[in-house]
Amino acid sequence: MNLGIISLLLLAVAIAIGFFRKTNVGLVCIFFAVIIGKLAGIPDGEILKGFKPNLFINLMGVTLLFSILNKNGTIELLARKIVSLAGSNKYLIPIAVFLMGALLTGIGPGSIPLLAIMPAIAIPLARARGYNPLMLAIIGCSGCFGGRMSPITPEGLLSYDLLRQSGLDAVAAVRSIYTAQMISGILIALAAFVYYKGYRIQMPEKGTEEKLSGFTGQQLLSLLGLLVMAVLVIAFKQNVGLTSFSVSAILLMCHAASEKDSLKAIPWGVLLMVSGVSTLMNLVIKTGGIKLLTAALSTFMNSYTAPAVMACTAGVMSLFSSG
User: Fold this and answer.
1) What's the pLDDT at 299?
2) Mean of the pLDDT values across residues 33-46?
3) How far apart (Å, rounded) are the C-alpha atoms in residues 66 and 71?
4) Which of 20, 19, 265, 17 is nearest to 30 (CA)?
5) Residues near 308 by beta carbon (within 8 Å), at least 6 away in sequence
6) Measured at the alpha carbon of residue 150, what is the angle toward residues 147 and 152, in degrees to the nearest 5?
7) Residue 261 has pLDDT above 70, yes or no
8) Which terminus in the chain has less CB density within 10 A, N or C?
9) What is the distance, to the nearest Å, from the Cα of residue 121 to the centroid of all Cα atoms in its chain?
């Protein structure tokens, strides 16, 4: 059998195993990459090239920095303070929640931690201000969706790397994707606002208004580190992974957060999944599997149906492996 077909079948099997056996897809992909490599006579060094250490370092550095900020409470308190800027004007609350999700996601952590934080903030806030809790949680998560493709988030870094490998103008492409996702996030938030009748504010629950404390010394140091990282990466074009590691090292040396807890909070499963799938995909490309897949898809896809087919494919895959 053609090695390209075998590689595609093994990729499909890896996805199925991940779904039905609840096993990390990346781990299975590395195992299958070894099998394909041996069948194709590809040296181990060539197999390992698919792991992409640069991408792994970038993803790990960013997630480590924001696990520190998450563990010492900086991200959550910053989010609550941003929302508090709406003051007594309740009609600004949904806008503030959306912008908070987009801003905090886009400055580096991506949606992985923020999608867990946003509902925890939005639901009690909704009860305190008289909004539907589910509506405000959806609006906050829509903001996270809109901001997740900035150039310094794990998602943005991954997309940039893949686009660059394909010979495309990665900067322009990521900018277009970011704009499209932001528009989509706004539309989803508006739909939730209309569906749940957000313009009809109810009487807030008594005793639910919270009083915010000030930032601690550790949290102020963390915010400074975050600012330094953003300036170095955006203004001075420094590597986001190495910069994030450097800032993280300084914060941990200053005991800004528990090193043990911060390291535990890194989404190791996600990093392994991304790197493992990348390793297998590298061999799928080398064995001609992508060309075969492209030829097969072209038989029923055209410029009009391609977006819908890709959207459905991504949606199905996201059911068993996070977006």
Assistant:
1) 83
2) 94
3) 8
4) 17
5) none
6) 130
7) yes
8) N
9) 19
Beta-carbon contacts of residue 93 (< 8 Å; ≥ 6 apart)? 83, 86, 125, 129, 131, 136
Q: Is 10 exposed, middle or buried (0-12, 13-18, 19+ CB in 10 A)?
A: buried
Task: Note whether 276 and 26 are within 8 A (CB).
Answer: yes
Distances (CA, A) of 73 to 64, 81, 252, 257: 14, 12, 15, 9
DSSP string, 5-39: HHHHHHHHHHHHHHHHS---HHHHHHHHHHHHHHH
Nearest to 84, CA basis, from 102, 99, 65: 99
List, as one string, the DSSP characters of 51-110: T-HHHHHHHHHHHHHHHHHHHTTHHHHHHHHHHHTTTT-GGGHHHHHHHHHHHHHHTTT-
| pLDDT band (50, 70, 90) for residue 209 | low
State the greatest distance between any 2 C-alpha atoms of the chain, in Å, as a whole number. Answer: 70
**Chain centre distance of CA 168:** 22
The enclosing H or E element of 276 equals helix 268-286
Which residue's entry shows tokens 């580190």?
225
Residues in the chain: 323
Where residue 165 falls among pLDDT bands split at 50, 70, 90?
confident
**Residue with tokens 């600012």, as numbered in its chain:** 227
